[in-house]
Write the structure tokens for this entry.
Amino acid sequence: MKQQPARVVLVGVGGYGRLYLEALTKNDLGARLAGVCDIDPTVADRFPVLKERGIPVYPDLDSFFARDSADLAILVSPVHFHTRMVLNCLAHGANVLCEKPLCLTGDEAAAMEQAARRAGRFLSVGYQLDYRRDVLAFKRDILAGRFGKPVRFAVYHGFRRGMRYYRRNNWAGHITAEGREVFDSPFTNACAHHFQLLTFLLGDSMPAACGLRDLQAELYRANPEIENYDIAALRFHTEGGVPILYYTAHPIRTEFWGPRGVLEFENATVTYDKEEPVFHGRMADGTPFDYDQVEPGIYMQKLLDALEALRTGRPPVCGVQADLPHIQAVRMVQQNPITPVRAELIEPTELNGDTFYFVRGLEQTLADCAARWALPREAGVDLG
């Protein structure tokens, strides 16, 4: 007997959620979109495929669950709604794929993980790099001891963001929104993937990421119209004592800056320099290696893996345990002071109908710091 298509509800269509909408409506994935939830009453006009396919639109999850059910709920909503939505979906028997970050406190993460266990459902998180087959192959080799113990990691990564980005909603660039913590920043949100990747690679099992012990941080704000920081230079130590340096920023002239990663082990050095990383390395004896022979899967592999989990009962690799260190890290970072960038370094610029606050030479400054394994002040750089 042929298996019935999985029923999916998608929450949030207008932003990143459109990629899920396209994947589910343009491909035969063995799934059917049972409904979408979006606060925009014009969403069906903006996405004609909803009317063409007769996919119902609901203003919220409660309205959907009052009339229907789903095997999988995909949540593409602001972080301060995630906990309530995840618990709601699990209570109605749906497995969950939640976009990152999952939440902002360890207590919320624990409550969601416990609810998933009680419901007998999985809760996966949308860090798409964790689902790449080459990333997983690399992690298996790390766990097997192929490269020896990790020594130190450094990555820089940034996206250019202007006022159009910050004005698109009521939480971008804010510390709180609607009385709730959001901590929106390049580290928390847009550029979270490559930091989370480092902790995932250092986890002591395939589903886990490594814990963090301490932090040295330099946070700066160049854009005078936002509440939170838009530049971060960070040095964490893992619970195993490995330093992780991470540099991220929005007020840059380069549209896509990095990522550039250097991962040093006892017996090898691994580098990568693409948004969808391909790892290249050299053993201590000079022998080169890479992972470009491993087919990574598609960009939306996280969706395919969630649908496969419905069929097999094996949960996707990226769950709560893979996100906990980043949840911890966000709060650790947010406890540090934010320094305004010196006015003479800021270059307000109009570009393509948008307003930007660029910091002169910021990309090279932070890249130089990464090469020296140093924070800006340690390298004699005064941004504030």
About this structure: The longest strand covers residues 150-159. DSSP finds 13 helices and 19 strands in the chain.
